[in-house]
Amino acid sequence: MLKIDLPTLFAILGTAHGLFFSLLLWLRPKKSFANKVFALLLIATSIRVAKNIVVHTSLIDPNIHYPIPFWRTAVNFGLIHQFAIGPLFFLYFLAQSNKQFQFNKRFYLHFLPYFLLLPTSTFLPWNFWVNGGLWTSYISILVYYLLAFYTFYHAFARKKLQLKNGDVGTSRRLRLLIIIVGILLLVYSPALFKYVGYIGGCVLYAVGVYVISAIILKENRQAKSLNKKYQTSSLRQEQISSLKNALEELIEKEKVYLDPQLTLQKLAGQLNVSPNHLSQLINSSYQQSYSDYINQLRIEEIKRLLKHPDHQHKTITSLAYDCGFNSISSFYTVFKKHTGMTPSEFRKL
User: Fold this and answer.
1) Could you tell me the pTM of the whole model?
2) pLDDT (tens digit, 9 = 90+) per residue, 212-223?
3) Burial 37-53 (b: 16+ CB within 10 A, else e)
């Protein structure tokens, strides 16, 4: 009987969960291009991790003897998917960071090594991996990881993530993915691999899959809750579009968010709409509550002032008050939430 310890069982369940969750993403009725890419990324990574689990089971149970054809195919099939993981990771960040992103068929060239090697899974000799293939696949993932990191940082700095309807959740999810994948890259590096073995990275992958899937499911529940909340609203789609334009024009020209006494009712009055309709607009168009929406505008304004030469002599506290915050403690909390750093750290960049 196969001997399976607790870490191995957890890794197996996590890998199975990754495959199952990728299927859910792929089959969901209104799947976006980004979700399809993420589903493929989960499949490719789960296959790669499954290879390590197979190898690990042969190490913990000396009675296991896999047939040579199965062993060769399993190892090759798993390692070959490393050439797909990098491009898919990068492609997912491209799709999530820019609402106008359109897939170009030339991007298939990034998968050329994967497509060329995949048919050789049953007969590719181990010497291929020993003599540079393995290092090439690891370097490939690292390069695409850095490209994805640059894409995320570039989009976040230039506020392009807000093109995704101001979805702050998107930036958090991408930041979490960068952290998880960065840890996995370190674990699988030659310097640490000898300490964590084949199963260490598999366990970490399982943890990452559970965390990411929980976040996505939570976001979906929140979206469904918002739709249910406003399903009886009299505000039609064309009215939402018109009201959104009016709101953004008011925000851009008058910067009403700098008013520390600005409330939902007060802003609704300036737009001549009911507070309920304005709340619906902000929730449906920006996936944010009213307070989160206004705080984000204030944070973007103070970020601009912190970097502006004319405001370098001003204290952070005075700038916070100038930007509409009437509580310094809440300002620091909101700033850290949106930027991942303190105002002082941001100013020094």
Assistant:
1) 0.67
2) 888 888 877 766
3) bbbbbbbbbbbbbbbbb
